[in-house]
Design brief:
It is a single chain. This protein is mainly alpha-helical. The protein has one domain (10-72). It is built from two helices and two strands, in the order αββα. The longest helix is centred in the last third of the chain and has 18 residues, at 55-72. The radius of gyration is 20 Å and the shape is globular. The model has no long low-confidence stretch (mean pLDDT 85).
Length: 84
Amino acid sequence: MKDDWVPINWPENLEEMMENWAKSREENVGWCLLCNNAIHTAEDLLPGTNTHNCEAGRALEEEIARGESQAQKPHKRCSRRSRG
């Protein structure tokens, strides 16, 4: 990873999301910044992750998995053999 840090991309409606969370009367353990809904229990997270099991969360985890699988593939090298 370049420089060992990842920039945070805050949702444009972060303030609205925080207001929705504060107004929510539902029991919850957190708020999903991907789908703007309550995370009711730890069972609402995708197994082995800290990502909410919502459409956007599943898409994010798929994107991460694709990136990791691409990073693990060996790079193909082209070589020229000289005729001698």
